[in-house]
Design goal:
It contains 5 helices and 2 strands, in the order ααααββα. By secondary structure, the chain is mainly alpha-helical. Strands 1-2 form a two-stranded antiparallel ribbon.
C-alpha cells in the first residue's frame, strides 16, 4: 500500500524525531533558570537529563562508536558541577543543532540505508532499529523532563498531534 511517499520509513522517523526534539525544547523553555540545575538523582535534574538526551541522540547517529566522546569538554552529565553544564539557552541551541543533525542523518540514509545497513554504533541492529530505539530514548527523557516541569509547577511540555 503506497501513500505516495517514496521514503515512508524515513519520513515517519523524521516527523517523530522532529516532534520529540520540539517537545524537549518546549520542556526546557518552561523550566526556570533556578530549577534548571536542581533535583535529586541526575534524572530529576533537567540540565543533566537534557544533556544526557542530546549526547545519546548524537551517539545513535555517530559514524562510529569508537571515537565518540560521552563527556565533551570534560563535562560529565551525571556528576559535573551544574555550573559546567549548558545553560537553558545553550541547551536550546544544542537541541536545534542535534535535531538538524538527526534529520540530516535520516535524509542521507533514506529508506534503503535505514532498512538495509547496520548501525555504526550498534552492529547488531539495522539503522532503522537503532533510530527507533533512539526515538524511544528521546521520548523517555522528554517525558522525564516534562514530568519535572509539571511537578514543579511549570506545566508539562505541550503534546501536539
Amino acid at each position: 500500500m503506497s501513500n505516495g511517499n517514496s521514503q515512508p520509513v524515513t519520513e515517519a522517523l523524521r516527523q517523530e524525531h522532529a516532534e520529540g526534539f520540539r517537545m524537549l525544547a518546549d520542556a526546557v523553555q518552561r523550566i526556570s533558570d533556578e530549577a534548571w540545575g536542581q533535583g535529586g538523582i541526575w534524572t530529576e535534574v533537567p540540565a543533566r537529563a537534557a544533556l544526557h538526551t542530546l549526547l545519546c541522540a548524537r551517539y545513535y547517529i555517530a559514524p562510529t562508536g569508537e571515537n565518540f566522546s560521552w563527556n565533551p569538554s570534560g563535562v560529565v552529565f551525571w556528576k559535573s558541577p551544574i555550573s559546567e553544564l549548558p545553560t537553558r539557552v545553550q541547551m536550546l541551541e544544542q537541541i536545534t543543532a542535534v535535531a538538524a543533525e538527526t534529520d540530516a542523518y535520516l535524509v542521507h540514509n533514506g529508506d534503503e540505508g535505514l532498512l538495509h545497513q547496520t548501525a555504526a554504533t550498534n552492529p547488531t541492529r539495522t539503522r532503522v532499529a537503532n533510530m527507533i530505539y533512539a526515538l524511544r530514548h528521546l521520548q523517555h527523557h522528554v517525558a522525564q523532563i516534562s514530568a519535572e516541569c509539571k511537578r514543579r509547577g511549570f506545566g508539562a511540555a505541550k503534546w501536539e498531534v
